TrEMBL record:
Superkingdom to which the source organism belongs: Bacteria
Organism this protein belongs to: Roseibacillus persicicus
Name of this protein: Uncharacterized protein
Pfam families named among the record's database cross-references: DpnII-MboI
Length: 179
């Protein structure tokens, strides 16, 4: 019995040596800049707060008529981003996950954020959005460290806190905007 435990311990150590050797090989193949990317968390946090603020405090002000298409809300949010001089990518990047392509409405490379805008404009849409958001989280987390969802509601979500709380984590924010 002791001999088998000893051999298991040796095998575990050999596995650890293999993992460390693979890491060393990776370090030798790549340059320092490919491996280490410095983050300025103060500036990044500030930009994330700015984006959340645009969604929560400004988006409703620039959407004058009740939107009928998600694209209308996306265009309004894009105008806010341009006005705030925030760098972003619209409709990208394409992320293949589980034999399906996912494309965030907006992405922000500097803060590692994918942002989706959803419109709740008809009965039953709330439940559909829950499924869509769960799918998006699974796909986008393969590429991004932070996720945001802006839900523009025309009065169909009764309990916005309950809706948002089911998704909220440290790396995910949900903003429900009422028209």
């Amino acid at each position: 019995m002791a001999n088998r435990e000893h051999q298991g311990f040796i095998d575990g150590l050999n596995h650890g040596v293999g993992v460390l050797q693979a890491g060393l090989d990776e370090l030798e193949r790549k340059s320092f800049s490919e491996i280490y990317q410095s983050k300025d968390t103060g500036k990044e946090s500030s930009q994330l707060i700015k984006i959340i603020g645009l969604a929560e405090r400004k988006l409703r002000k620039v959407v004058r008529a009740v939107p009928t298409k998600e694209r209308e809300v996306q265009d309004a949010f894009e105008s806010l981003l341009v006005g705030a001089e925030i760098q972003y990518t619209r409709e990208g990047p394409h992320i293949e996950y589980s034999s399906k392509n996912y494309i965030p409405d907006f992405s922000f490379d500097r803060i590692d954020l994918a942002l989706e805008i959803k419109l709740c404009v008809r009965p039953g849409r709330e439940k559909e959005m829950i499924a869509e958001i769960n799918d998006d989280i699974m796909a986008y987390k393969t590429k991004f460290g932070n996720l945001g969802f802006v839900i523009y509601d025309v009065g169909l979500i009764r309990d916005t806190d309950k809706f948002a709380d089911q998704f909220s984590r440290d790396d995910i924010f949900i903003a429900v905007i009422k028209h």
